[in-house]
Design brief:
Length: 660
């Protein structure tokens, strides 16, 4: 068994809740935070089930037509980890030592804790656990309790507990908890509003036994949760053997080796580990912005999946890519309904959702990000190009047609060309603008893809001529004087944000300034035009000018920003800058750079790390149907090895740094 271990020494912030996120385990269906085994105030236990959410009506001070109606909040349902332990009636209350070792190559977590009672009786707790990828309903644990310095009666009680939402939270719009009232009937738990059910098969222990110094008591627990009330009994040892095999298969394709930088190597593997863990596998669920590791963003699925995660999955785990895209096909009816409700043709995908319905209560940075439609189309096209799986595209082509129909009805033809007004691009510090460059570029791509499919499948031919015209005449703003691509029609006319007088502690700006103040300035939260340049070939000198203009205006307050800048910097030959962005991306959650790893992993950034390495340093691209690479390795990295599954065939690449 290969080992590659993550320990507390690898973390920049070892506050309990951060640790619980980074060491969390998941299998696409269920995620379990690595919470402390003995209840503590600073611990935040949580088990999340992908797509299991409660709905609550959104209460607007001032409502308007078509606003999203319901919140959908992922339920932090059970605590599967906490033990109650006492020695001769004295509870264990003082934690004196903790060690966590996560074997990234197997997904198996080993933990050791030393606890004491107030009378000084010491107990060592050794835990081994994993969320089974073989039997996704199961969270498996092996627990060993050793008396260190006493003889006495040890009482252990361990049962799954229903979790209640936390009572208070600081102001942070990125986290929200629903008060969830799970109704229990037998082994069935049902949410009051969304009427979703889970079934459980929990293992419980409640025993007292006599221990002398160095003596131990060991037991296994298999806690199971199912949406279908179907449970398969598989032994702990068998699950463990299968877990190792499944991870081995994953790493045999998806691993990336970096020579020359151990910290980054570890960062990359941690990120790939989490990507493998939190991706929905059933076509009905997707990948939350925080995976299944925390309650940030309420478990919602965003464009993060299509633009940041799917390149990795498509190139190395196409089956997972397909199931994530199948989810979009399954929610197409909701997207069509939404477009209709807003008075447009075709389909408009929800900005943030689980059920497929829009749940963004703040439409300027939510629904208005209509680029989500084109992001999904882009991801489908990439999937087709890389896998050659045309059968799947045939089954999913309605997504492309319906999104193309939306563009045609949302945009309009003017003297300048085909314009798309009243949108918000990826940069959420600029809202409700006309002709956002990224959106127009992506919509153009979406329309062209629809035309290609219409020709291939000999259908919608008449509509296709309109799609073609709209794409060909798509309007892009450009400032002839400065020779800068306009992020949107008004961006260049705005006042520049006063960066010099913005104290460090006022970042992220969204927590310290009203949107009106932010929107009226030239200031970016994340890559926007630069992301478009990463995706579509553009003259290098133009990309360089735009990079030099937009990057200094970018706060990178969004974790989705740095990796993209890294890729583009690589392509511009700015290897040191590329390296710096990449290093930030690779270790973002390990160092808690964004200051909120406790809310859950930054999944999109983790996918961004893959982009930084493969699109950036290795310059991977498809040229005339062939995979090509370009060596942009920075001096710190001596060699890079990775695999790509292209058209069903595994290709291995090795790049060496000539300068070393
Ligand atoms: C970013 C969005 C992203 C969301 C979820 C926001 O901070 O601005 O682009 O989709 O986080 O990750």
């Amino acid at each position: 068994m290969k080992t590659y271990t993550l320990t507390l020494d690898d973390l920049g912030n070892i506050e309990t809740q951060n640790v619980e996120t980074i060491f969390a385990q998941a299998n696409g269906f269920m995620g379990v935070r690595a919470s402390l085994p003995i209840q503590a105030n600073d611990s935040l236990p949580g088990t999340f089930i992908n797509g299991f959410y409660e709905t609550h009506p959104i209460i607007y001070g001032e409502n308007a037509y078509g606003y999203a109606k319901n919140h959908e909040t992922m339920v932090k349902c059970f605590d599967l980890r906490t033990l109650e332990l006492s020695v001769n009636g004295e509870v264990l209350s003082v934690l004196t030592e903790r060690n966590l070792k996560l074997n990234l190559m197997t997904g198996i977590l080993s933990e050791t804790y030393l606890y004491e009672t107030n009378l000084g009786q010491q107990i060592k707790l050794e835990l081994e656990s994993f969320t089974s990828h073989f039997n996704r309903t199961t969270y498996a644990q092996k627990i060993k309790i050793t008396a260190l310095n006493f003889s006495g009666e040890v009482h252990v009680k361990k049962e799954a507990k229903l979790l209640l939402p936390n009572s208070s939270k600081d102001f942070d719009p990125r986290v929200r908890e629903a008060s969830v009232n799970l109704q229990k009937q037998g082994n069935q738990y049902t949410t009051a509003n969304s009427k979703l059910s889970l079934y459980t098969k929990f293992d419980e222990i409640d025993e007292t036994f006599q221990l002398n110094p160095t003596q131990s008591f060991e037991f296994e627990q298999l806690n199971q949760i199912s949406k279908e009330n179907q449970f398969e009994i598989v032994s702990y040892e068998r699950l463990k053997v299968e877990q190792v095999k499944i991870f081995d298969t994953f790493w045999s394709v998806s691993d990336i080796e970096i020579d020359g930088d151990e910290t980054l190597q570890k960062g990359v593997r941690v990120n790939l580990y989490h990507l493998f863990n939190s991706a929905g596998r059933d076509g009905k669920t997707n990948f939350g912005a925080k995976g299944l590791t925390g309650e940030g963003y309420e478990g919602h699925y965003f464009w993060d999946t299509e633009m940041y995660l799917l390149p990795f999955f498509t190139h190395t785990q196409p089956e997972i890519a397909k199931s994530l895209l199948t989810y979009r096909l399954n929610i197409l009816p909701q997207a069509k309904q939404r477009a209709k409700e807003l008075g447009f043709a075709g389909a408009l995908y929800a900005w943030r959702t689980q059920s497929g319905h829009e749940t963004s209560a703040y439409y300027p940075a939510g629904t208005a990000q209509v680029h989500i439609n084109a992001d999904i189309a882009y991801a489908l096209e990439l999937y087709e190009k890389v896998t050659g799986d045309s059968a799947f595209i045939q089954s999913a082509k309605e997504i492309i047609y319906e999104t193309a129909r939306f563009w045609l009805s949302y945009g309009f033809m003017s003297q300048r060309g085909f314009e798309i007004h009243e949108v918000t691009g990826p940069d959420e510090y600029t809202a409700l603008v006309n002709n956002n460059y990224y959106t127009n570029k992506m919509a153009q791509n979406n329309l062209r893809y629809a035309v290609r499919l219409a020709h291939t499948f000999k259908e919608n031919q008449e509509e296709a001529t309109f799609w073609q015209t709209a794409a060909d005449k798509m309007y892009f703003g450009y400032d002839e004087t400065s020779k800068i691509t306009k992020q949107d029609d008004s961006f260049l006319d705005k006042q520049v944000w006063d960066f010099a007088h913005t104290p460090k502690e006022n970042y992220p700006l969204l927590l310290h300034y009203h949107p009106m103040k932010i929107y009226k300035h030239q200031v970016l939260k994340q890559a926007d035009t630069i992301l478009a340049h990463m995706l579509f070939a553009e003259e290098k000198a133009q990309v360089a000018r735009d990079f030099d203009f937009y990057e200094p205006l970018t706060t990178h307050d969004s974790s989705l920003s740095r990796a993209i800048h890294g890729v583009v910097a690589s392509r511009l030959g700015r290897t040191q800058q590329a390296y710096d962005f990449f290093a930030d991306s690779a270790t973002m959650d390990l160092s808690d750079m964004q200051g909120n790893a406790s809310h859950g992993i930054h999944a999109a950034n983790m996918g961004g790390t893959w982009l930084g390495l493969i699109y950036g340093f290795a310059g991977l691209h498809i040229d005339n149907g062939e995979l090509k690479i370009e060596n942009h390795l920075p001096k710190q990295i001596k060699a890079l090895r990775f695999n790509i599954l292209y058209q069903g065939k595994l290709q291995s690449f090795e790049l060496k740094n000539e300068k070393n």
